[in-house]
Write a structure and sequence with these properties.
- It is a single chain.
- The chain folds into 2 domains: 15-252 and 441-459, Rossmann fold, CATH 3.40.50; 262-438, Glycogen Phosphorylase B (Rossmann fold), CATH 3.40.50.2000.
- 43% of the residues are buried.
- Helix 3 runs parallel beside helix 4 (125-132) and helix 17 (407-418) packs across helix 18.
- The chain has helices at 24-39, 81-94, 96-108, 125-132, 144-151, 153-158, 168-172, 184-190, 195-211, 225-234, 262-268, 288-301, 325-335, 344-349, 362-371, 384-394, 407-418, 421-441, 446-459; strands at residues 3-4, 10-11, 15-19, 43-48, 63-66, 115-119, 136-140, 214-217, 239-241, 275-279, 305-308, 336-339, 353-358, 375-377, 398-400.
- Helix 13 links the parallel strand 11 and strand 12 (336-339).
- With 461 residues, the protein is an alpha/beta fold.
- It is 46% helix and 13% strand.
- It has 19 helices and 15 strands.
- The structure holds uridine-5'-diphosphate-xylopyranose.
- Residues 23-26, 28, 141-142, 255, 259, 279, 281-283, 308, 341-342, 344-345, 361-364, 367, 382-384 line the site of uridine-5'-diphosphate-xylopyranose (UDX).
- Uridine-5'-diphosphate-xylopyranose (UDX) is lined by residues 23-26, 28, 141-142, 255, 259, 279, 281-283, 308, 341-342, 344-345, 361-364, 367, 382-384.
- Belongs to the UDP-glycosyltransferase family.
- This is Putative UDP-glucosyl transferase 76C2.
- It comes from Helianthus annuus (Common sunflower).
Length: 461
């Protein structure tokens, strides 16, 4: 039944409760999804932690509800991935009761709750949903390819694939069938400093996803058709591929850091496709030595660059202190620009941007695909490793640095993407994907239709 609110907005009388994970790469897609579902007539309540809470003034059309009794929640110092993993364990135990309380209260109100949509990393909430007989849909913020990798994780552990990575032959050998694009070297990086906790989080996330009613993916069918087929064999729940979320509306306002808009005026002064954009997302941390290799790789490439250096992301420094004066005066003044945080979607869409050196967080990778910008890949952990492998070896829309951060290899990779004929091939392939993105969002396109199906599915509860 459709009703009209005082603001004149048509609603279908169904309230959805969305529970995001409080990290930038998870908040962005969840709030974008909330906007998409709101545009379909659902009323939206965002249940959130106090830590990294979204700014309600940017979303006056939603109701925001902080999870109560969690004032003592730890600040996980999110620059360290080990801490993120411990934080995930913590919230999935300590926040369960307060979340149950909130859901019970919302369900008892006149509006009720049609459905709960949580980030896949809120795996502890499935039992609450079962108890309350509330349908839970999982929103997986990354893609299907990397999920398949996570899902195979325990199987691979059993078959001893996580043994020694020291011998060169083993390192480059492919993994089990179905995971061919990945290799042992990817796995060695994947484990992080706390492999046991990381394994457990993955196992619980995969299990929680299997038990959910359905899964919403921020990806599109044309990109991962084979992977979707493979996924459906072990995960028979309905899958809704309705991405890329950020293309439904103008650039979102869920950034936790202020975006430096001078990035755009600086780009305005440059010729088309001439600038390399460099950013490693909201969590990756670098050693000082790696930071300097990046700086000299950029300098030696002689290409213009826009570089995001997040404050606190370089070990032992507040911001740019490790950079020698010579670099700042001669190189940056000449052809570089460094900011603390950029309006990334606008930067990637800018005509002057010709390449993206990224850590391959899924949002960054997808945003790059949507704008047809070829990539240089420096994955650090988790889904970034399979994402990078797909960019370089499967979709062939970029190159991956093989030796971490090493100035000669960086210089050569920048030239491959920005200058050489090879770069043109990457650009042609990624432009082709960009057109597919545009088509999938049009009426009758795969994501458009999947969104229609999702709306009907929720309304059927
Ligand atoms: C984290 C994980 O690291 C990533 O692997 C996972 O896929 C999602 O969660 P993060 O590292 O922050 O995310 O990377 P990413 O997924 O790329 O998300 C970063 C978001 O911040 C993007 O939406 C990007 O547009 C935005 N961003 C980044 C800015 O707005 N400005 C910047 O300067 C840099």
């Amino acid at each position: 039944m459709n009703t009209t609110t005082t603001t004149g907005k048509l609603t279908n009388g169904h309230r959805l409760v969305l529970l995001p994970l409080p990290f930038q790469g998870h908040l962005n897609p969840m709030l974008q999804l909330a906007n998409i579902l709101h545009s379909k007539g659902f009323s939206i309540t965002i249940l959130h932690t106090r830590f990294n809470s979204p700014n309600p003034t940017n979303y006056p059309h939603f109701t925001f509800l902080p999870i109560p009794d969690t004032a003592g929640e730890p600040n996980p110092l999110i620059s360290d991935v080990g801490m993120v993993i411990r934080f995930l364990h913590y919230i999935n135990i300590s926040f369960v009761d307060p979340i149950r309380g909130c859901l019970e209260r919302l369900m008892s109100e006149d509006d009720g709750v049609a459905c709960l949509i949580t980030d896949a990393q809120w795996f502890g909430i499935q039992s609450v949903a079962d108890e309350l007989k509330l349908p839970r849909i999982v929103h997986r913020t990354s893609n299907i390819s990397s999920f398949l990798f996570f899902a195979a994780y325990s199987r691979l552990t059993d078959t001893g694939c996580f043994g020694s990575f020291s011998d060169e032959e083993t390192k480059s050998k492919s993994l089990a069938k179905g995971l061919e694009p990945l290799n042992h070297q990817d796995l060695s990086k994947f484990l992080t400093s706390d492999p046991e906790s990381a394994c457990k989080v993955i196992e619980l996330m995969v299990e929680g996803t299997k038990r959910a009613r359905a899964v919403i993916w921020n990806t599109f069918k044309e990109l991962e058709e084979g992977e979707l087929e493979a996924l459906s064999q072990d995960f028979p729940n309905p899958h809704f591929l309705i991405g890329p979320f950020h293309k439904y509306f103008p650039a979102s306002s869920s950034s936790l850091l202020a975006q430096d808009q001078t990035s755009i005026s600086w780009l305005d002064k440059h010729p088309p496709k001439s600038v390399l954009y460099v950013s490693f997302g909201s969590i990756v941390k670098l050693e000082k030595s790696e930071f300097l290799e990046i700086a000299w790789g950029l300098a030696n490439s002689k290409q213009p660059f826009l570089w995001v250096v997040r404050p606190g992301s370089i070990g032992g420094s507040e911001w740019l202190e490790p950079l020698p004066d010579e670099f700042l005066e001669r190189i940056v003044e000449g052809r570089g620009y460094i900011v603390k945080w950029a309006p990334q979607q606008d930067v990637l869409a800018h005509r002057a941007t010709g390449g993206f050196w990224t850590h391959n967080g899924w949002n960054s990778t997808l945003e790059s695909i949507c704008e047809g910008v070829p990539m240089i890949c420096s994955p650090a952990f988790g889904d970034q490793l399979p994402n990078a492998r797909y960019v370089s070896d499967v979709w062939k829309i970029g190159v991956e640095l093989q030796n971490g951060f090493e100035r000669e290899e960086i210089e050569s990779a920048i030239k491959r993407v920005m200058v050489n004929a090879e770069g043109l091939e990457f650009r042609n392939k990624i432009t082709n994907l960009k057109w597919k993105v545009n088509r999938c969002l049009e009426k009758g396109g795969s994501s458009y239709s999947s969104l229609e199906d999702l709306v009907s599915y929720i309304l059927s509860f």
